Amino acid sequence: MQPSPTPSPSLSAAQRYQSIFRPGLFQGQVIVVTGAGSGMGRCTAHELAALGAQVVLVGRTLEKLRTVEAEIAQAQGLAACYAADIRDEERVKAVVGEIVAQFGRIDGLVNNAGGQFPSPLHRISAKGFDAVVRSNLTGGFLMARECYNQAMRAQKSGAVVNIIMDIQGAVPGMGHSGAARAGMLSLTETMALEWAPVRCNAVAPGFIATSGMDKYPPIMSPLIRRIHENVPLQRLGTESEVSSAICYLLSPAAAFVSGTCLRIDGAAPTARRHWPLVGMGGSNDKFDGFHLAQTPKVLQRGSMITDNRMARGFVRWMQQKWIRKI
Known about the structure:
This protein is of the alpha/beta class. The protein has helices spanning 39-50, 62-74, 89-103, 126-155, 175-195, 221-226, 239-250, 297-300, 304-323; strands at residues 30-34, 54-59, 78-83, 108-111, 159-163, 199-205, 261-264. The protein has a single domain, classed as Rossmann fold, CATH 3.40.50.
């Protein structure tokens, strides 16, 4: 295995990740990140590489992974790419085997890959429900199982971080994803019990400003732009704030942390309809150490007038397509 580089002093702050953790924290470690081609996975891969890890990028689209690999190389980090659909059991087995053959070990797994589509429960087909469960639960299980069986079990060491979502209360419009993520949370707790001393934890991001926001239908844009109003901290989270939590759980500082879930949500689940004073104290300063972070396009557009009009259109759309049983 190649030695992991320490970021050169010649790189400016604009050219490398500004992590709060000490340089070389993950020196010599091999850490796999799924869904690494964009969003939180891409950000996390950058931070891990900046901290000395040999990062292994896994995702379905090799072209996107190659782009992230080149970005990391530009910042003098180490990354390797493996194209895989984590829902494909045989491919997962093969890819993990190739990673172990190339690097000799796996020290960490960030189970970030997943996805969903908005829909009310009564309109979700069995095929659609199964597709979301396979992406957000089955695929993560397969990756974790193979990393454990092919590397971490014999090593008697390692850490798994499963990325779920804010599922406190209910997940209206995405019940299939909420069910899958709840399953992953339970699975995380069982992993922590059965696989110790390998540590297994979950991270539950809330409303995070990430490129995934641009994938939702345009009719949802005003809702996305105003969703921070339901967060006590009165803002969206950053990809870096999620990545730093993941790095903590992978680090020696979390050596006695296993079987738990760390929420990154600005206290959003505490908001209550009967208590309208949400965020009356204002916001706080965000942390954004990712040098390549970009504001999602949906957050760059819109005005109060336009959003109010679109919001009314969104309500009508929900009434027509979601509530009425056609």
